[in-house]
């Protein structure tokens, strides 16, 4: 791609990317296409959180990796909206900040023999900022607007991503730290009554508060989705079924105790199962739903595992069937 002085073509290229991975690749391509930029490292904090250290985007960088402490120190230094240059015997290192809404969320480090021309540094800065805006847009498109939980469209993709993770493949079904992945579907009990008695605005507020309780009860690395109106899905890791059930019961109890403004007390029901590589996403959801119905049928405010139902699972129990 030819680079015009304003970098117009790179901006068009970056803003055409609608997937995070292709956007990352586009950024690496754009930066490596800039004149006089050959050796570089791109560090980005994809959580847009100034407390979290950025991580390296171009893993094959020839520049020695920096520690979190070094990176946080550098971010602070470049946060004055400046391109910083440090000269040493071996050459010049240039630090270009990446901004999002006034906060530095990343850094481009370039090592070169001579100082980079000013217009190249400025162009790099524009490209980084366009990337940050596009990344934020992609992140937003995955969220439910009311609750800011992950939306249903993102759910299937995430399950498939988890199932195809390296340490999940084969029959181990083991994830990081020897924990397994679980899927839970959680539904607010008698939610229609909330709408009927207090109106939709209060109903929406209840959905929002339940979403917050859900987020607070799970960890950073778990995934919480708004699956339907008053239905939520959670993908979380646990050592075993007992621990998974305990986690969900803890959430259930926290919600039951929570004083919802105007409405008072509410409960939720849940159904869950361990993710299995033999199942398709629709089948996993169907099984979690069956367990959820069991909770509802047994009086609500309950957690049921799919395995509690004692159903014969033809596919999962047949080791000879190869689905992939
Ligand atoms: N306020 C509000 N209500 C919603 C939203 N999405 C779905 N609902 C309502 O949620 C209610 C769901 O009701 P049902 O599926 O009958 O279930 P329920 O009353 O929760 O009863 P059980 O699930 O059987 O315990 C319906 O009245 C929907 O209109 C939303 O985004 N906001």
Automatic annotation (TrEMBL):
Q: Which of the seven top EC classes does this enzyme belong to?
A: transferase
Q: What catalytic activity does the UniProt entry give for this protein?
A: 2 GTP = 3',3'-c-di-GMP + 2 diphosphate
Q: Where is the GGDEF domain?
A: 179-308
Family matches, as NCBIfam families: GGDEF (TIGR00254)
Q: Which organism is it from?
A: Pseudoalteromonas haloplanktis
Q: Please provide the record's keywords in A-Z order.
A: Nucleotidyltransferase, Transferase
**By its UniProt entry, which PROSITE patterns does this protein fall under?**
GGDEF
Q: Which Gene3D superfamilies match?
A: 3.30.70.270
Mention one GO molecular function.
Answer: diguanylate cyclase activity
List the taxonomic lineage.
Answer: Bacteria, Pseudomonadati, Pseudomonadota, Gammaproteobacteria, Alteromonadales
This chain belongs to which protein, by name?
A: diguanylate cyclase
Coiled coil, from the record: none
What EC number(s) does the entry state? Answer: 2.7.7.65
């Amino acid at each position: 791609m030819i680079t015009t002085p304003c970098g117009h073509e790179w901006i068009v290229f970056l803003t055409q990317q609608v997937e995070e991975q292709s956007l990352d690749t586009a950024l690496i391509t754009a930066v490596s296409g800039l004149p006089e930029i050959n050796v570089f490292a791109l560090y980005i904090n994809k959580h847009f959180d100034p407390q979290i250290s950025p991580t390296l985007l171009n893993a094959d960088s020839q520049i020695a990796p920096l520690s979190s402490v070094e990176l946080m120190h550098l971010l602070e230094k470049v946060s004055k909206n400046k391109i910083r240059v440090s000269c040493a015997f071996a050459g010049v290192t240039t630090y270009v900040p990446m901004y999002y809404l006034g906060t530095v969320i990343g850094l481009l480090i370039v090592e070169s023999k001579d100082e980079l021309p000013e217009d190249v540094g400025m162009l790099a800065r524009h490209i980084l900022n366009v990337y940050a805006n596009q990344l934020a847009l992609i992140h937003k498109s995955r969220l439910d607007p009311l609750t800011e939980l992950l939306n249903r469209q993102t759910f299937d993709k995430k399950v498939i991503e988890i199932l195809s993770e390296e340490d999940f493949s084969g029959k181990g079904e083991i994830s990081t730290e020897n924990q397994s992945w679980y899927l839970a579907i959680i539904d607010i009990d008698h939610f229609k009554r909330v709408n009927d008695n207090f109106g939709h605005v209060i109903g929406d507020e209840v959905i929002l508060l339940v979403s917050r309780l859900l987020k607070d009860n799970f960890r950073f690395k778990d995934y919480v989705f708004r699956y339907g109106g008053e239905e939520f899905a959670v993908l979380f890791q646990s050592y075993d079924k007992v621990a998974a059930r305990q986690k969900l019961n803890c959430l259930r109890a926290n919600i039951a105790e929570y004083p919802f403004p105007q409405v008072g007390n509410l409960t939720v029901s849940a159904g869950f199962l361990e993710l299995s590589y033999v199942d398709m996403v629709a089948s996993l959801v169907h099984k979690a739903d069956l367990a959820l119905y069991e909770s509802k049928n047994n009086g609500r405010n309950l957690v049921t595992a799919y395995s509690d139902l004692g159903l014969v699972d033809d596919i999962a129990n047949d080791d000879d069937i190869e689905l992939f």
